């Protein structure tokens, strides 16, 4: 059972506790902190949204407490996923009861300084030591955890080989949290879409694409009904600890950078599961949303995924550590590695364009490589009126429509498929979803490219990976509107990175 006391910890004190500034500290037990979501009045009025504190359970033999500033999360049961009436829920968020054992979790996202101290270097474009580390793959994240363990004299949690990554659950070293642990800590007892209740403020509560607060999609022309109005879009991450923590003392669980978790992406296990570790496979899950995501993709239940060896400028991590050993090992990749298929060397560029920006990018790509070029045509085209198409696009995404396509493509002859689209409402347009479900992409390499107005790739690559789980996902390209004078050079470099000639 949680010990009832109030505690807040600054990032500086956490670094001191971790030994990075020469001052030792102690682990903290999670229950409450000096900040409450919204207001005291609102919290009192929403007590029905709080789940009861977990009942005490017999504790296994615990690891020795390490003075690293990690916060002890007392185990318990909660409803993972989202209720069917939650706006913008995904079909992969099936609500089910899960029990998690006690574990330690960092109150902060790992920073560039943390990463550099453990590994001796930082990922590409990561130069500000005060910011959360990002642009690192899942594989780099687990490698960092092992380096952190070695530096602290702990037993590394992971065995990493070319073929697989296995988690030794008896190890006391640092690791990624599981999806269940992450959501349990994020919710901090809440059952609402966010741990800040029914909406989340971009000015005062989280760092995200603040022009698009929760439920703006269906209320774009009637924003007075929104709980939270459009606000700041910072276009970059902020230092961990910049926003108030949740009720259990964890900072930036929503927004800033998405956070890698251990689990492979797949269907949830049956209800009543204890300490689930997720699916095996090359697609790995990450949670929380990032600085360039819409509020709907920051929800506590929202699930995103990328291939284990792919990175994103808005995905980082926070570290966890087991509170007690378990005699078991878990495989990450298993036997689900994807093998290349199709006819070697045969390339396809297929795209959907509404305004012409994506069409222009596709034509430039075609000028740089040998490939067939196909523009998707709809049986019922979208309106040419901007305001109308905004409504049509959000409606189709909300109901996960699959617009009928007129094209007939002999997909079997291609091994590499470059798929282009505009970033609509922070994801793929639904004609792209129709394409991905209409054809078999197993064993093929999908290389996404996208035009956008500021949200970059949003959750589009994750959406593609979910719909084509047996494909390989290449390095994506995002282009601001139709691009600038350097676009040709950018395309040439992008094609070379993906091995497309």
Which helices and strands appear, and what pairs or packs with what?
Blueprint: H1 11-17, E1 28-29, H2 40-45, E2 71-73, E3 76-80, E4 96-100, E5 103-105, H3 112-119, H4 138-152, E6 158-160, E7 165-168, E8 174-175, H5 179-187, E9 258-264, E10 273-274, E11 283-287, E12 304-307, E13 315-316, E14 320-322, E15 329-331, E16 347-351, H6 357-368, E17 372-375, H7 386-398, E18 416-422, H8 430-438, E19 445-452, H9 460-467, E20 472-473, E21 477-480, H10 487-497
Parallel strand pairs: 1-2, 4-10, 9-13, 16-17, 16-18, 18-19, 19-20, 19-21
Antiparallel strand pairs: 2-5, 3-4, 5-14, 6-7, 7-15, 8-14, 9-11, 11-12
Can you put this structure into words, describing what you see?
- The protein has 501 residues and is an alpha/beta fold.
- Helix content is 20%, strand content 17%.
- The protein has helices at residues 11-17, 40-45, 112-119, 138-152, 179-187, 357-368, 386-398, 430-438, 460-467, 487-497; strands at 28-29, 71-73, 76-80, 96-100, 103-105, 158-160, 165-168, 174-175, 258-264, 273-274, 283-287, 304-307, 315-316, 320-322, 329-331, 347-351, 372-375, 416-422, 445-452, 472-473, 477-480.
- Strands 16, 17, 18, 19, 20 and 21 form a six-stranded parallel β-sheet that branches. It has a five-stranded mixed β-sheet with strand order 1-2-5-14-8. The chain has a four-stranded mixed β-sheet with strand order 12-11-9-13.
- Strand 18, helix 8 and strand 19 (445-452) form a beta-alpha-beta unit.
- The chain is globular and about 60 Å long.
- Residues 1-26, 30-48 and 55-59 have low confidence and may be disordered.
